[in-house]
Specification:
The chain is an alpha/beta fold. The protein has helices at residues 2-15, 26-40, 43-47, 70-99, 105-119, 131-139, 145-162, 171-181, 183-186, 191-198, 200-216, 218-238, 283-294, 298-322, 361-364, 388-402, 415-423, 440-459; strands at 242-247, 254-256, 269-274, 325-328, 342-344, 347-350, 375-379, 407-411, 436-437. Residues 259-447 form the STAS domain.
């Protein structure tokens, strides 16, 4: 009956809170009426109703803690401290989010430490947050420190003088008050469908914490929940999101090419993004994802070039030998480093000199969409740190792509990432500092300027050497 009245009264207060000058103190009326009815009808002796019973009055005198017991209780003390702080900060953040204020975890930790240090001199229990009392105070409208002070004074008054008045209070009334005020906590079960739709990982953490705390207790349940949460963090950093970025036309904005049809890749440039730190657990995955997502694999390119050059040398060599010029010369060739020609009955065949400047089409199938990729830009705007293993991986990527003539630029590195790279000797070669750019757009422009200058140098006519006035060109003798 008390449960129903309190629940209905809560709904009444919530519905008419704008018209009521103050919330109706339902819990106070429940305690007064429950105590009066229990005492008037002598429910404990007549019907064996559980009541609060005798409450000891007064405070114990201060005394020094018994240090001889420390080695017996330090393990439990650590568990109690962790659980106590976790419960306190979780309840504080829950109420802070509900009422719109901030909570400082360090401040709460210091406050708990001071309270427990002083309270231990008076032989108190471990001090922490009470879920039920906090929700009861919040449910009755208490929102400031003044409400906490008044509640503390009331408890002190009960301990010192008026405790006997509550000896007849039925336990059922207290239980009903606690359960009704825990309604907000039970309503968190409604979050399960939301977690199921949005994040299976968060659902796993929620269920694991609930089940382990229910069956193992708060101490082991909390440890289990922390371990599961750490494992999920490792899993998430090992499986980050990899994206290939493209340019939004006529802007300096670069976004995922799979997100918008208008976004196009820049010819010859691949932009690769990761949304996680690069460290020992995911560095190899990062390197593999870079090659897979961009479609540019230096090992395949190098192998294709070697295969193509061997095939080309064989085909060109056979054709040149068939069309070689036949001359009459002595078999002896002057010069220590001269290559010996092939001799057939005093006839020597010299293949013509052929310079190959491009690779056959067989090589092009190893490049994405037939493009000649000359630059790979690594977007580090979402990378917050790089450890020593990650730095070695980046150095290997720069060298591996550089061996096949592809530049690797780092764009958007934070000061922390630059410090990590410097501390791990990534810039041991000062020239590598030229690979850093403030933004993706700067890296793109730098790459395009570099390629334009290289193309201009390649197409420029070679400089002609000045000849002496009386000099005449020499011709080889037959």
């Amino acid at each position: 009956m008390v449960f129903g009245l309190l629940l209905g009264g809560k709904e009444f207060n919530e519905r008419f809170k704008e018209k009521l000058p103050a919330p109706i103190p339902l819990e106070f009326f429940a305690v007064v009426m429950g105590t009066g009815i229990s005492a008037g009808f002598n429910l404990h002796e007549s019907y064996s109703v559980d009541v609060v019973g005798t409450l000891p009055l007064g405070l114990l005198p201060p005394a020094n803690p018994d240090t001889s017991l420390f080695h017996l209780v330090y393990v439990d003390a650590i568990a109690i401290a962790i659980v106590g702080f976790s419960v306190t900060i979780s309840m504080a953040k829950t109420l802070a989010n509900k009422h719109g204020y901030q909570v400082d975890g360090n401040q709460e930790l210091i406050a708990l430490g001071i309270c427990n240090s002083i309270g231990s001199l008076f032989q108190t229990f471990s001090i922490s947050c009470s879920l039920s009392r906090s929700l009861v105070q919040e449910g009755t409208g208490g929102k400031t420190q003044l409400a906490g002070c008044l509640a503390s004074l009331m408890i002190l008054l009960v301990i010192l003088a008026t405790g006997f008045l509550f000896e007849s209070l039925p336990q059922a009334v207290l239980s009903a008050i606690v359960i009704v005020n825990l309604k907000g906590m039970f309503m968190q079960f409604s979050d399960l469908p939301f977690f199921w739709r949005t994040s299976k990982i968060e659902l796993t953490i929620w269920l694991t914490t609930f089940v382990s705390s229910l069956f193992l207790g708060l101490d082991y349940g909390l440890i289990t929940a922390v371990i599961i949460a750490l494992l999920t963090v490792i899993y998430r950093t090992q499986s980050p999101s990899y994206k290939v970025l493209g340019q939004l036309p006529d802007t300096d904005v670069y976004i995922d090419i799979d997100a918008y049809e208008e976004v196009k890749e820049i010819p010859g440039i691949k932009i690769f993004q990761i949304n996680a730190p690069i460290y020992y657990a995911n560095s190899d995955l990062y390197s593999s994802a870079l090659k897979r997502k961009t479609g540019v694999n230096p090992a395949l390119i190098m192998g294709a070039r070697r295969k193509a050059m061997r095939k080309y040398a064989k085909e060109v060599g056979n054709a040149n030998m068939a069309n070689a010029t036949v001359v009459k010369v002595d078999a002896e060739v002057d010069g220590e480093n001269a290559t010996k020609p092939e001799e057939e009955d005093d006839e020597v065949k010299f293949p013509p000199i052929v310079i190959k400047t491009t690779f056959p089409e067989e090589l092009q199938r190893f490049l994405p969409q037939g493009e000649n990729v000359h630059t790979v830009i690594l977007d580090f705007t979402q990378v917050n740190f790089v450890d020593s293993v990650g730095v070695k991986t980046l150095a290997g990527i720069v060298k591996e792509y550089g061996d096949v003539g592809i530049y690797v630029y780092l764009a958007g590195c934070s000061p922390q990432v630059v410090n990590d790279l410097t501390r791990n000797n990534f810039f041991e070669n000062p020239a590598l500092k030229e690979l850093l750019f403030h933004s993706i757009h700067d890296a793109v422009l730098g790459s395009q300027v570099r390629e334009a200058m290289a193309e201009q140098e390649a197409t420029a006519p070679p400089p002609q050497e000045d000849m002496e006035p009386n000099a005449t060109p020499t011709t080889p003798e037959a």
